[in-house]
Amino acid sequence: MKTIRVLIVDDSASVRTILTEILDAEADIAVIATASNPYFAAERMRDEVPDVIVCDIEMPRMDGITFVQKLMSQRPVPVVICSSLAEAGSQMAMQALEAGAVEIITKPRVGTPQFLMEARTRICDAVRAASRARVVARTATIDVPRKLTADAILPPASGRPIERTTDKVVVVGASTGGTEALRRLLEALPESSPGMVIVQHMPAGFTTAFARRLDGLCRIEVREAATGDRVVPGLALIAPGNHHLLLRRSGAQYHVEVRDGPLVTRHRPSVDVLFRSAARAAGANALGVILTGMGDDGAKGMLELRTAGARTLGQDEGSCVVYGMPREAMRAGAVEAELPLDRIPAEILRLAADPSTKPAAVKR
């Protein structure tokens, strides 16, 4: 088993200590060094280049965003941003993702034992995901929570056929690398595109800024979801961080429900929960899309979608930052067609306009 070598960069000594204790407790992760600012980190990297860097944003001498930009232009290394939940920090975290960071986690803090355990799980999972990420040059052993399934939030569908409607709904799941993939996907869609409901693995406090950023870039409206929001053409609703998002149906109309609950497939929000709810509420009226990400969240839910008659698409390996979630969905037989990211928007529009059309050929 290859050990993931981590460099921690944070101006807080206590944060460096906590992160080191959390990561060093894992058999497959080792902290090779810590640094109080990017300049000391750069000196340390002359001796040994880490597999992953865990980096704060607000630091003396050089901020984390500038550090990420310099890394990606000179010596690309996967970076996990470790930030507070402040609104200003959320905006900066979005900038860090645009600069090339692959994950966002929140700084560990005092809380309930369950909170601390979940925080440990997120931090270690983020480092593992980052270690598998493809990064390219750009210009300028602890106990973990039991891996629950969507049954913990929503029972399986009854198997009864679902009445077709004229409105189609697109449900999308993404994780590592998904912030950039979603930007490219949504930017390519016209105002007339079908309503979308999205789960991107992201902590609480970041999704509001993420949705606001996308809304300013896209022709469609993008916003953080709230219980009762209707799913209508030209609108994309993003699951709030640390909350599950479910699709519901009332007559011929769709709306969403934001719900608390345990981690499902190690995540909250969970793609499996969204996809299962869409299988129950929309069936053949739905179109499922699974994008880049580590792990298997979404594979079981997408299979339920396909079984219910929905069309299903996966992002191909060549365009993924981490080909984990789409690969597991493919292995489960849940994906009808695998496509490069830049072809997915047109395929969504084509299948939504004529669900009976044959999907693009599956890449083997």
UniProtKB/TrEMBL annotation:
Positions of post-translational 4-aspartylphosphate modification: D56
Top-rank EC class of the record's enzyme: hydrolase
Free-text comment about domains: Contains a C-terminal catalytic domain, and an N-terminal region which modulates catalytic activity.
Subcellular location: Cytoplasm
All copies of domain CheB-type methylesterase, residue ranges: 163-349
Role of this protein: Involved in chemotaxis. Part of a chemotaxis signal transduction system that modulates chemotaxis in response to various stimuli. Catalyzes the demethylation of specific methylglutamate residues introduced into the chemoreceptors (methyl-accepting chemotaxis proteins or MCP) by CheR. Also mediates the irreversible deamidation of specific glutamine residues to glutamic acid.
SMART domains per the UniProt record, alphabetical: REC (SM00448)
Keywords: Chemotaxis, Cytoplasm, Hydrolase, Phosphoprotein
Gene of this entry: cheB
Gene Ontology biological-process entries: chemotaxis
Keyword Transport (UniProt): no
Family listed: Belongs to the CheB family.
Known EC number: 3.1.1.61, 3.5.1.44
PTM info: Phosphorylated by CheA. Phosphorylation of the N-terminal regulatory domain activates the methylesterase activity.
Name of the protein in question: Protein-glutamate methylesterase/protein-glutamine glutaminase
Native organism: Aureimonas flava
